[in-house]
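SAMPLE LOG
Freezer: B-3
Tube label: C17
Construct: single chain, 320 aa
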Amino acid sequence: MKELRKQLEEKDASLPKISGYYVHISSRNNFPTAAGLASSASGFAALVASLAALYKLPTDASHLSLISRQGSGSACRSLFGGFVAWQMGERADGLDSYAVQVAPREHWPDIHALICVVSDDKKGTSSTSGMQRTVETSALLQHRIAQVVPARMKAISDAILARDFDTFARITMQDSNQFHAVCLDTDPPIFYMNDVSRTIIALIVEYNRVSIEKGGKLKAAYTYDAGPNAVIYAPKENLKEIVELIVKYFPQADALKDPFGLFDAAGVQGKVVEGFNEAVAKPFPVGSVKGLIHTRVGDGPRTLGAEEALLGPDGFPLKA
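STRUCTURE (predicted):
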């Protein structure tokens, strides 16, 4: 980033010479770190976007994604808002492996997500070290790269453009399942999910079964990154039922933060939809799911105002 700024300064003598200055960085997450919720992706994307804004770099997000993925591969997708794909590329130097926006958030604004924080502890196997081991030992990964991922990338991109949630959901769940199959195929195997994670899968599968049995389509999709925490995608109209379902089996110690006003003053009451087979899982104790975060597809990195700065005028972190 400093080198890119230096090149600008060499071309335009009127620019302040700031490329040689040290940079004091303060980075904070408002959700669990190193727990399989893309904290590293958000952190490195924020870092690169902040430096690009500071240095006033005339660089598009795809170019910046090449830089951000050096810190965290998934960070390249976080340089955009909306629905984003990371292109694998073919060049040995990796310069054609970058992120592109499939569609802006406004294209499909009612897609929401419920994040089930199963564990906020640091994972036993980090994403980076786990993937390195998988690349070295998993034969299934090579099949996935060559035969599965290219077709799924096209199919899910088409589903996003067509706002086809049924196809989007099916591919999302299939790909999550196969990712964790690859983790199990690693030597020695990597176990990211736990009993709570698998129970959430069972609940969403049954929730979708009820919908299909009544002549409908898939209403929700689960996905898991390198960790036990579930992300459930669904159209906003289904989120109330999904929250009630999760709370039925995983009662919460604290009241749900309800940023989209789904519930009245009484709060969430755990229950299932009509026709749901409650025997697919047993209720867990309070705290088995540590928290629920209701969010939506994001709009990408934003430059915040001074009132939200993490550093003071002296360049040192502000006290929390």
